[in-house]
Amino acid sequence: MQMNGHLSEYDEKAITDVFLHEKNAGIIGGYCEDGFPLYYANDKMAKMLGYPDTASLAEGIGGMVANTIHPDDMPQVQKDLTDSYYEGQTYETTYRMLRKDGSWFWTVDNGKVIRTDDGRLAIVSICNDMTDFVRRQKELEQQNFLSESMFKNLPGGYHRCSCEKGFPFLYVSDRFLNILGWTEEDIRTRFDNKYMNLVHPDDRQLILKYCNTVIWEKGTDNYADQIYRLLGKDGYHWVSDTTILIAAGGRTFFQGIISDITKYMEDKEKGERALEAALSSANLKNEVISAVSTLFLQIYAVDLTAERYDRVNTDGVKYGMVERGGHISEMADIGINRLASPEYHDVMAEFLDFDTLADRLADKNSVYTEMKGFNGKWYSVNFIVQSRDENGKVTRVLYVVSNINDRKTKELEYEEKLVNTLQEVKRADIAKSDFLRRMSHDIRTPINGIRGMLEIANHFPENMEKQAECRRKIGEASGYLLSLVNNVLDMNKLESGKVILENKRFDIIDMLKKSNSVAEINASEHCIAFNVDESKLNIIHRNVIGSPVHLQQILLNMTNNAVKYNRENGSITVYSTEEPIDSDTSMYTFVCSDTGIGMNEDFIKHAFEPFSQEERSENSSFGSGLGLSIVKELVERMGGKIDLQSKVNEGTYFSVSVPLKIDRDVSGEKSESTVRPTVDMHRKMALLVEDNELNMEIAEFLLEGEGMIVVKASNGKEAVEKFAASEVGGFDIIFMDVMMPVMNGLDAARKIRSMTRADAQTIPVIAMTANAFQDDVQRSFEVGMNAHITKPLDINKIREAITDVMTKNLSSQTKIDATGFANWK
Predict the structure, then answer these.
(1) Terminal-residue alpha carbon distance, the chain
(2) Measured on CA atoms in the order 99, 102, 108, 110, is the torsion positive or negative?
(3) Does the pLDDT at position 277 exceed 70?
(4) Side-chain half-sphere of 46: how many Cα atoms within 13 Å?
């Protein structure tokens, strides 16, 4: 086995030739034999896998490269490599690699087969950590869900195509597929995912011309909808297509919507054929004309040679075949000045230009346009060739007028909805991009502060004052990072309907005092005066029933924004009022006004939308733009309302009103303000289950700081074994991580609860995990856990959880059944 720095000159040259420009990448190699015996690894590869050096790496993986590859990914890796190795063979494959600490990360492996100094074939690979890339892809897929869901309810068939050759599909709606009868798999396999492959061969030049028109007329309404044929499962469909060119996310592409007009085109073609056949016979019966005329409002027979027209009577029986006629100039005057609305005079003048009509019909049998009538209704007008001379020049035509008001009205509604939807998508894309930009700024700024404070602390190891200052600033920066993450998670939970409002008794005066205290400290740190307007305070009933956690979140968001968007030496004023609704319920209103920078009227309309933040130099990049969205969702869930008034450079008035039930039975159940009992944790035996060494060290420090004796386990299996081996009552409490290798925390808790020993049903189990969603909490309770603490760990939250579960356990010794949730929720 050759390790970094111990290669023969031959092998070193072979590897250098393969990876000339990748000296700083993680490189690992194995012989082309079962298990890929380790042939080479560099220090970078060792560090990527969590080993101090290549010798430790070799020992840790048992000398086999295959031991670093996730078992589920090995079949695909072997498929990508193939079994027949040969010198010079190259490959690329993707799989998960195992770190020393048991965690996995995604890697893209690019490698080559070489012949070593001893004549054996070996694979040498560059491995790049792709974990962040995979995570970002999942985030973008979530964010793109908003844009894609907007098109699912469109009445027409929405499609998005690249501008490349053949117009490859970027997105196609279910309605589009339903119109043609295809599936997404059909589009990919039968039509090579290209829009042009669906178009009738005779219409493809028409489509190319239409797309060029869309590109040249970008941003205008100077081009009409295009009618052509698309192949469906049951044959070709006539469609009316409205397509525009847009630029979003750094790309330019076509977006459009199709309407199926097959029935209309078939009826129109049928009517034209019937009319042409009927008029070619000198002995037409009036009833035939009458039948044909049901498809048209007006029919004219036009002789281009004699420059005369005759109107075919659409009542047939009463007046005979021809009602009246005249010179074709009169016909043009009727069509332009008596039928068309003023904005379509130019369109009709061009269409009824008889000097150019023969040329326009030189290579086709009909020409067609649409126009709006003076009565506001829509009509189609057609010239249909009736006869040509011996040279092919048109001599007689039919001019027919049809009422298309119903179809055109629907098309315009579709177009308007499409335009509005596209505008919403574009605005959402812009808001999302702004959000990502601000999040990047807001995440990097505290990270820069944390790393900078660490550098300063390392530079002054003996200066205790400087050390304390650095620790304080690191705490502030990490707290800000946590608030950003919590905002994003809160918005996600609200949008997915996973936020459950509480129905608790609490003292609203106590809650307001706590919120105002936090706000006053925050304001003073920014040189802003914080005032409670006691002259307007009007709280009649202080004991209420509702969701205090979410209400306090709303109030803190209001005051935080008032501080964030204020100015130095500015002021904030708050007060609260109560208005009775009935004997059991009151409307509580909370008002916060400030002397800050304010908002303009246009932005106020979008202030409560996710990711929205006004672009002004004096307040740019203050946060994620989710705070007011969260407030709006919570207030609406509570059945309340919001009032927002603001003027630029003057300030903002913000009020929230929510209905709360009055707690008449104050003496019955303890309110939120009741002092919690204390639990003596000194010498209590705690089983701490955590796979991450750093998290284990932090948790152990916090628990031992409370006087507990800590026994550690690095995964769920080890925890189950240690609990089973202990005496009954040997452990007082278990702290369980959830996501762990070998056995996760949920399975471990379930196994402990299923044991027959006496304390298996009663020992408190607290989930201590980074999983913060409501369904994660639900799953923890369902397997018998008694509390759920989210990381990062806070000693106050730990104390509260221990007090809650151990107080219940000591008072009732309640047994936890298989579901657990019913007794401990």
Answers:
(1) 57
(2) positive
(3) no
(4) 18
More confident residue, 432 or 233: 233
Upper half-sphere CA count for residue 145 (Cβ side, 13 Å):
9
Cα separation, 511 vs 519, in Å, equals: 12
Token pair 């204390």 is at which residue? 678
Stretch 354-371: mean pLDDT: 90
- The reply to whether 156 and 186 lie within a common domain is yes
Containing structural domain, residue 47: 9-129
Residue of 45, 44, 75 lying closest to 61 (CA atoms): 45
- Looking at the fold, whether 483 and 632 belong to one and the same domain comes out as no
The domain total for the chain is 6
Contacts of 137 (CB under 8 A, 6+ apart): none
> 534-585, pLDDT tens digit by residue?
888 889 999 999 988 889 888 988 898 899 888 888 999 999 999 999 999 9
Report the alpha-carbon distance of residue 397 to residue 675 in Å, rounded: 95
The pLDDT tens digits for 397-444 are 998 888 888 888 888 888 888 888 888 888 777 767 766 666 666 677
User: Distances in Å between the alpha carbon of 552 and those of 134, 374, 538?
Assistant: 36, 61, 18
Residues 291 and 185 in one domain: no
Cβ contact 772:810 at 8 Å: no
Pairing of strands 641-647, 685-689: unpaired
Amino acid of residue 701: F
Q: How many CA atoms lie within 13 A of 39 on its CB side?
A: 28
Of 202, 226, 260, which residue sits at a domain end?
260
pLDDT at 175 over 70: yes
Tell me: do 369 and 416 sit in the same domain.
no
679 lies in a domain? Answer: no
Q: If you count them, how many residues does the chain have?
A: 825
pLDDT, tens digit, for every residue of 747-792? 999 999 999 999 999 999 999 987 766 678 888 999 999 999 988 8
Per DSSP (E only), the strands in 538-636 are 543-546, 571-580, 585-594
Q: Three-class SS string for 336-377?
A: HHHHECHHHHHHHHHHCCHHHHHHHCCCCCEEEEEEEECCCC
628 and 707: one domain?
A: no
Query: Does residue 670 fall inside a structural domain?
Result: no
Q: Are the C-beta atoms of residues 256 and 213 closer than 8 Å to each other?
A: no
* Residue 235 CB contacts under 8 Å (≥ 6 apart), including other chains: none
| Beta strand pairing call for 251-260 and 226-232 | unpaired
Q: Six-digit token pair at 44?
A: 């970078």
What angle in degrees, to the nearest 10, is found between the helix axes of 745-753 and 774-782? Answer: 30
Two tokens, residue 188? 């990919």
Nearest 5 degrees, angle CA 530-CA 536-CA 542? 95
Partners of residue 483 on adjacent β-strands: none
Nearest to 38 by CA among 83, 46, 80, 131: 46
Within-domain flag for 671: no
Separation CA 335–CA 328 (nearest Å): 11
Taking a C-beta distance cutoff of 8 angstroms, is the pair 105, 96 a contact?
A: yes
Q: Which of 403, 426, 458 corresponds to the end of one domain?
A: 403
- Pair 658, 517 in one domain: yes
> Pick the residue with more confidence: 312 or 357?
357
